[in-house]
Amino acid sequence: MRLSELRRVSTFRLTLLYGVIVAIGMIALLGVIYLQSAVYLTRRVDTILSTEADALVRPAPSDTARRIGEALTLDGDQSNIFALFANDGHWLAGNIRAKPKALEPGGAPVEAAPTADFPAYARLIARRLPTGQVLVVGRDINQLREMRAIIASALVWSGGLTFTIMIALATLLSLAPLRRLSGLKLVSDEIAAGDLKKRLPMSSHNDELDMLAATVNAMMDEIERLLTEVRGVSEIIAHDLRAPLTRVRAQLYRLQQSDSHDSVEMARAVGQIDIVLERFRALMRISELEARHRRAGFAATDLARICREVVELYAPLADATGVRLATGAEQAAVVEADPKLLFEALSNLVDNAIKFAGEGKSVEVSVDGTPQHPVIVVQDDGPGIAASEKSLVLQRLYRGEQVRREPGSGLGLSIVVSIVRLHRFRMNLLDANPGLRVEIDCTSGLTA
Amino acid sequence: MPRVLIIEDDVETATEIAACLSAGGYRAEQSFDGKDGLTRALSQRYDALTLDRMLPSLDGLEVVKALREAGSGAPVLMVSALSDVDDRVTGLRAGGDDYLAKPFAPTELLARVEALIRRSQRPAAETLLTVGDLCLDLVKHEAVRRGRRIELLPMEFKLLEFMMSNAGQILSRRMIFEWVWGYYFDPGTNLIDVHVGKLRRKIDTPGLEPLFKTERGVGYMIDAT
Q1: Cβ contact (<8 Å) for A297 and B194?
Q2: What CATH number should be reported for the domain whose range is A295-445?
Q3: With a cut of 0.85, is the ipTM above it?
Q4: Which end of chain A is more exposed for a tag (fewer CB within 10 A), N or C?
Q5: Domain spanning A1-187: CATH 3.50.50.60
Q6: Which residues of B touch A317 (CB under 8 A)?
Q7: Sequence ranges of the domains in chain A
Q8: pLDDT (tens digit per residue) in A115-152
C-alpha cells in the first residue's frame, strides 16, 4: 500500500477532514478558556494592587514610607513589592531600588521581568502622592504565568494529539476498503484480459462497493450473453450457411463440366440457395426484433383469441401431418402486448410442436394461470428435448442437433426468444412426460 | 406492352428489376432520383411504378405522397431495404399499394407488379369472380362450380377470393400469407402449401379440369386455361 493510494481513498480523506475540524474546534475552545481565565486572573491581581495602594496612602500620605516598612515586614513569603520614590526618581523606601521605566504613575499596570531586588515576574502599578512622591505597588505573578503556560501547552498538545489520532484512524479505516479495492482491481484486470467468466467479489456488508460490484456483475452477465450470441451467429455462418453453399458450388461445377442443362440438378441448386436465403431472412428478422426497443405496436391483447387464431391457421398443417391440434383457450386473458408479434411467436412454437411431435401425437395450445398471471402453454406429447438442451435453446440463435436435420431456417425458436424478451415476458421449457411443455409467462405485460 | 417506371438510385438493383420486368413482358424505364421520377410519373402514363424508399433529392415516401396528392392512381410497389412491419405500414399509409423488402426474388417482384396492374384494371365494385366454370359470389358468400355449391371455411373463402382476383397470375407463398392472413413474417415450412392444397381438393374434385396450378419454387396460380 502506497501513501498516494491511501490519499485517494475517500474514507481516509473524510476521516482526516473530520480530524482537522475536531482539532480546530478543540483549539478554539481551549483558546477561549485560556483568554477568559488569563483576563480574570490579571484583573484580580490588578484589583488587589489597587486596594493595597489605597490602604498605604489613604490614612496619611506623608506616613507612606513607614507604612511600606511595616507592610514589608508583614509580607512573610515576600511576594509583594512596595516602594516609594521621590519626585526626581530617587529611592526613598521599599524593596525595589529602581522604578521600571515603562511604569507611569496613574497609567496602566505593567509586567516586569525578575531583577536583583525582586527575583520573580511581577505586575506593578504606580500612584503619585499629593506630596509629589511616587508609590509603586507590585505582586509576584509567577503562578499566573505558569497557569497560562499550562493552558497554552494543553492547547498545543490536544490539537496535535487529535490530529495524530485522526490520521491513524483514517489509515486504519481505509485499510479494509483498500484491500477490497485491490481485490476488485485484480478481478477487473483479469476480466479486461479476456476472462469474461470472472465476477467482482462481493462482501456481506451490502455497502456502496457491493452495490457497484453488483451493477458491474449484472453488466458482465449481459456482455457475456451478447458475446455468446455473437459467437452463435458466427457459428451459424460458418457451419449452416457454408454447407449448402458448398453443395451449390459442387452442383454448379458439375453442371458446368457436363455442358448439359440437367433441370433436376439445377432445381436442387436453387433449393440449396433458398435454404441459405431463408436462414438469412430469419437472422435479419431476429436482428430487427432485437433492435426494436420501442413498444409502439403494443395494445390490450387477448391471449386466448391469439391462441385460437394460431390453431385455426395451423389446423390444416396438423391434419396433413397426422397431429391432433387443439386449443383450450376460451376465457379472455388480456395483456399489454404486440398482437402481431405474439402471433408470430406462437406460430413458431406450434409449427415446431407439429414438426417434432410427429404423426399420431397431439399438440395443445392453451392459456393457463390466473387472470392476473396468464401463461400461454404449448404442450405436445412427442419426444421432447433433452434436459441438457433446455437452457441452451433459450439462448439467442441456438440450434439443436435435431433442428439441423429439419428443413427451414432452424431459427424459429430464436425468433420466439427475441419476441418474448421484447415483451419482457418469461419463457420456460418443461418436461411434459412425455413431450415438451413451453410456457410463456405474460405477467409483466398485464394491463393495469 | 404495359409500361413500368423503376425509381431506384442503386443502378444494379434498377437493372435487375428492369431485366426481370422485361422478361415478364413489360417495358421498363428507369429513373435514378426522386424528383426526376416524380416528374416523369406525373407527365407520362405508366401502368405501375416500383419505388425505392431512400432516394436522393426526394424521399420515396414523399414521392408517393406527392403522386397521390396530384391525383395519380398508378399502382406503386415500394421496394425497400427497410423491412420491418412498421416500415411496411408507413409505406402503405403514404399511398403505396404493396411493399417488397430487399433482397427479393425476381419472380416475387414480377408476381407483385402483375397483381398490382391487374388489381388497378379491375372494376372496383366487382361482386362476382369467375375463373372457367368456377364462380365466387362475394355478396352471397358462396362458391359454385358447375352448379355445385362448395362448402368453404371463412379463411378458405378469403384465400379463394384472393387467388381468383389474381387469376392467371402466380402468387408467392409470402404474398398469399400477407394478403389473406395479414401477417408479414415467414410462415415457415409448408403451411401455405397445406392451406392451398386443402382448398384445391375442394375445388378441383376428381373428374373436373384442374384450375389450381403449382409453379415449383415460386407459388400458386388459379387459371382456366
Answers
A1: no
A2: 3.30.565.10
A3: no
A4: C
A5: no
A6: 190-191, 194-195
A7: 1-187, 208-288, 295-445
A8: 888 888 999 999 888 888 899 999 998 888 888 888 88
